[in-house]
């Protein structure tokens, strides 16, 4: 769907992140998502692995969601307001192998909260976390240029793809099936602990299409809709239809 959108709207803006000052075209979305996907494969992630995304709205959230899909990973959305107990629960519930997270937001320091869950992070080499409390988690990627212990910087993963991982990524595009799991959303947990709901590629695209029809959205050059990155991901699926 991203490729189809690029063919139709390549140089048109797909995303504007006002607070970051980022303006990203459909073509740039594909390029950035492919680079990140290759980097994720390079650090050892494989199709079917679960990649957590713990962040507020930002352009990196948007790019990461498409990168995970291109690499055949299952993206797990984690509420950015979660504290360490909820974070630990989510990691273990779905068996996250890697986590992409924000640096800070208001009073929330994501690295500190994760360190409360896994004290081993402070002494771990990036990509080699060995935690007693969250044993499945091996790699942590932070949207920052700070040198934080135990983690990769987001931009380093963007640049990490080798020739081999780029080739593997290209080969994967014909192997990913529409009925395969694409993303996991946790329920609110109002009647108990949050439940992990798995959505397929087909479900996400189909829902996006009918949401677009219900909202009577049509893509026009120069038109814009103000929405969170979660919604903009949905609407840009609509653009390809």
TrEMBL record:
It comes from the Eukaryota. Keywords: Ligase. It holds the Pfam family AMP-binding. PROSITE patterns: AMP_BINDING. GO terms for molecular function: medium-chain fatty acid-CoA ligase activity. It catalyses: octanoate + ATP + CoA = octanoyl-CoA + AMP + diphosphate; a medium-chain fatty acid + ATP + CoA = a medium-chain fatty acyl-CoA + AMP + diphosphate. Residues 3-212 form the AMP-dependent synthetase/ligase domain. Gene3D superfamilies: 3.40.50.980. GO terms for biological process: fatty acid metabolic process. InterPro entries: AMP-binding_CS (IPR020845), AMP-dep_synth/lig_dom (IPR000873). Its EC number is 6.2.1.2. Belongs to the ATP-dependent AMP-binding enzyme family. Acyl-CoA synthases catalyze the initial reaction in fatty acid metabolism, by forming a thioester with CoA. Has some preference toward medium-chain substrates. Plays a role in adipocyte differentiation. This is Medium-chain acyl-CoA ligase ACSF2, mitochondrial. It comes from Timema cristinae.
